[in-house]
Specification:
312 residues, inorganic pyrophosphatase (n-terminal core), 2 domains, 6-stranded mixed sheet, globular, binds manganese (II) ion, DHHA1_dom, Phosphoesterase RecJ-like protein, EC 3.1.13.3, hydrolase, Oligoribo/pAp-PDE_c-di-AMP_PDE
């Protein structure tokens, strides 16, 4: 599959790379890293990355402006996005040829070619694998590509702590850190927290519930977020805040937004992605997202999570 993708990249003069909405470091790292890899080896090609700007992660990479007309003659590559609804910038449909590169469980088969590897820690790790094709052709990995891919791997593995971290992950991390970029600076920027978010974290730690099943739960209403001056998206950064609690198996953050309640699920035990799938969501076995439309419905989610934890 990697060789076919490399051939496709060779064929096109114009390539547009997408990723999922509400990007995380892996989405941006794989997207930006792939652009760097292609530009590094094929400097004459036009390579663009698209999607909404994310202020908190703009230190990683900035998006490009691309006119509608460019899409028709372009190869489109979508990184780190399991289903079509989550692709940022729907103009991906207008492209000449579509490639999906992803490590989430396959829930929506899209693309003229799809390379899905659930055993990869991150899409950034997959881009490292894809780089091997470039290397065979004489390519060198740039420092900037290494910085971005490393950030993506660090993001999706929780700094190499999550069980998705494999020998391959360390192999690639080892290669990437030989390049010139500051890891301390990268970590500082990835994990810095604002004062309001730190205060909210204090609130979460004091108020979450640990249930007899081993499930943890916290409710963050719109009013609560407003009181602390934190957005729902920012609150996503503290979803692991009580993960080290003794006896906890899985947990959920219910975060109220304008017209829905976001369900952020994490686990150290039972697989929770099927549960997420039943509530308009999906994701990885140990990290998933979903949403419901009422507080009433959160009770059903919690009941399901209790059952998973009790049976684990
Ligand atoms: Mn990812």
């Amino acid at each position: 599959m990697k060789d076919i993708i490399f051939e496709k990249i060779k064929q096109y003069d114009s390539i547009i790379i997408h990723r999922h909405v509400r990007p995380d470091p892996d989405a941006l790292g794989s997207q930006g890293g792939l652009k760097e890899v292609i530009k590094g080896h094929f400097p004459d090609k036009k390579v663009y990355i698209v999607g909404e700007r994310d202020d908190s992660l703009s230190f990683l990479v900035e998006m490009d402006e691309v006119g509608d007309a460019v899409f028709q003659r372009s190869l489109i590559i979508v990184c780190d996005t399991a289903n079509r609804e989550r692709i940022d910038d729907e103009r991906y449909e207008k492209g000449d040829f579509l490639i999906k590169i992803d490590h989430h469980p396959e829930v929506d088969e899209y693309g003229d070619i799809a390379w899905v590897d659930e055993t990869a820690s991150s899409t950034s790790e997959m881009i490292c694998e894809l780089f091997l094709e470039f290397e065979k052709d004489g390519a060198e990995l740039s420092d900037e590509a290494a910085r971005l891919l490393y950030a993506g791997i660090v993001g999706d593995t929780g700094r190499f702590r999550f069980p998705n971290t494999t020998e391959q992950t360390f192999h690639w991390a080892g290669k990437l850190i030989r390049k010139e970029f500051s890891r301390p600076e990268l970590y500082d920027k990835l994990y810095e927290k604002s004062l309001p978010l730190t205060r909210l974290e204090g609130y979460v730690l004091s108020n979450f519930e640990l249930r007899p099943s081993g499930a943890g739960v916290i409710y963050l209403t719109k009013d609560k977020l407003k009181e602390f001056g934190v957005t729902s998206k920012e609150a996503a950064n503290i979803v692991n805040t009580f993960s080290t609690l003794k006896g906890i198996k899985a947990w959920v953050f219910f975060v109220e937004e304008e017209d829905l309640i976001r369900v952020r699920l994490r686990s150290k035990g039972p697989e929770i992605h099927h549960l997420a799938g039943r509530y308009n969501g999906g994701g990885h076995p140990m990290a998933s997202g979903a949403h419901v439309l009422s507080w009433e419905e959160t009770k059903e989610v919690l009941r399901d999570l209790d059952e998973l934890c009790a049976n684990f």
